[in-house]
Every structure is written in C-alpha cells, then in structure tokens.
Design goal:
DUF4218 domain-containing protein; about 270 residues; single chain; mainly alpha; extended
C-alpha cells in the first residue's frame, strides 16, 4: 500500500528536527523549541499551546515548503494564514468578510488530503472562528493560557478567574500611588535587564542597550560573514562614524575630481 502524500521520509524528518533545534526567537516570543525535539524518534513533544500556535502560524510555511507536494502545502498554508488573520492584534473587517467564503473551502481541501479519522469537532470549529472573532474581538485577551493561570479553585472556575482579575486590577491601580523608586508591576524592569547605571555601561551609544546575556558565556572566533555584518551595522548605525564617513567621501571626491559617477552618487547621498 503506498504511503499518503503528506507523510515524510526519515531523512526529511531529521532535517526538520535539526532545523528546529537551531531556531532562535525574540525574548518572550516562544519557548525554546529545541527542548521539544526528540532526535531519536524524530518527533516533537511537550509543546505548549502557544508554541503550537507559533509553529502553525509562522513555521509551517517554511518547514514543509520543499518537502510536501504543492497541493498539501497550499492547504496547510491556507490554514496558517487563516489563524494569522484571526489572531492578529488589529482586526480587519474586510479580511474577516473575505474569510466567510473560504472557511468551507479550506476544510474541503483538508478533507481531500487527510483521512476521516483526522477530523473531529476541533477541526470543524474553523468555520465558527471567524464569527467568534467578530463578536469577541482580538483573541489576545481571551487565550486559555492566561485564564488557566488565574484558576486557584477548580470547583469554581469562573469565580476564581473573576477574583484574580479584580486583584490584578486593584494592584495596578494602587501601584500608581507608589513612589518612583518602589518596584512594582507597572515599572518592573525586563527580566534581561541587568539594572546597570549609566556610569557602568559603555559610553558609546551603539553599545549602550540595557540587558544582559542569557546562559553561560563562551569565547569563539567570528566568521568572515559575521565580521562583515558587524562592520556594516556599526558603519550604518553609529553616529560618530558619520562624521568620518563624510570626510572620507569629500576626500574621495576631491581626489578623483568628480570623474567617477559612482563617487558623485555617494557624495550626493
């Protein structure tokens, strides 16, 4: 019996797992997905709901682009784009209306690929998500992750969530009456801020960003491409370099006496 069109070979699974282990995200965007990779079984496990959402919205478009047939990848892409629109911080009513005719088509495309055992009530809820977003507004304030953290009394879930919200609002309101040196939720520094003063930091503005390194430090030699990236960043972002850059262009212009059109263009910019 031939394999289904959506199945991956062992080599393809290994490449995806290795790719995920080398992914780097911004602080707080997602957890460390490398911990969820099992290189022996070549599968993902232990992913939180937010990690699954990030993988479905952002990574699925890249991970399977060259490994799945066009029909399968297009169907998965439509699902990914659907959740990107629904989970965006700003809702576009016109795009939500356009999704009204695409919800059923997306499900039909998935039913052409996956077996009937794949579908249950959760997959068919895609049809109702668009209406739920229009009524309930952005989903960032209705994620179950934040609600589950507020549940302390499992016998009375709603009352426990309401009480936690009241305590949070009261705490935020009272924090406005504290003196500025008092640390509270409103003025709490970022978790990667080392609380260094201006006297202890490097005086150059380009290297004066607050924060600290995460994890143990180690030394290594930079590659040629990394060194080129650092040089380009400094030359284009460091204000002190602009003065010397202008002097260099003027000297270059005087030396060639504006005979080179490339030099004239650089000086003009």
């Amino acid at each position: 019996m031939p394999k289904a069109v959506y199945t991956l070979t062992r080599e393809q699974k290994r490449r995806i797992c290795e790719w995920i282990t080398h992914l780097k995200f911004s602080d707080g965007y997602a957890s460390n997905l490398a911990r969820c990779v099992d290189m022996k079984e070549l599968r993902l496990h232990g992913m939180k709901s937010h990690d699954c959402l990030v993988f479905m919205q952002k990574l699925i478009l890249i991970a399977f682009r060259e490994m799945l047939p066009e029909s399968v990848w297009s169907a998965l892409t439509e699902v990914s784009l659907l959740f990107q629109i629904i989970c965006s911080t700003m809702l576009d009513v016109n795009k939500l209306q356009e999704l009204e005719a695409k919800d059923a088509i997306i499900l039909c495309n998935l039913e052409k690929i996956f077996p009937p055992s794949f579908f249950d009530s959760m997959e068919h809820l895609i049809v109702h998500l668009r209406y739920e977003v229009r009524v309930g507004r952005p989903v960032q304030y209705r994620f179950l992750g934040g609600l589950k953290m507020k549940v302390k009394h499992k016998a009375h879930l709603e009352a426990s969530i309401i009480e936690a919200y009241l305590v949070e609002e009261i705490d935020l309101f009272i924090s406005h009456y504290f003196e500025s040196p008092v640390l509270c939720k409103r003025n709490r520094p970022c978790r990667n801020d080392n609380l260094a003063t201006n006297d202890t930091r490097i005086q150059q503005s380009i290297f004066n960003y607050p924060g600290r390194a995460s994890g143990a430090s180690k030394k290594r030699w930079l590659s040629g491409s990394e060194w080129h990236i650092i040089e380009t960043y400094i030359l284009t972002n460091y204000k002190v370099v602009r003065l010397y850059y202008g002097l260099f262009l003027n000297e270059l212009y005087e030396h060639y006496q504006s005979e080179d059109p490339i030099v004239e263009e650089l000086v003009a910019t």
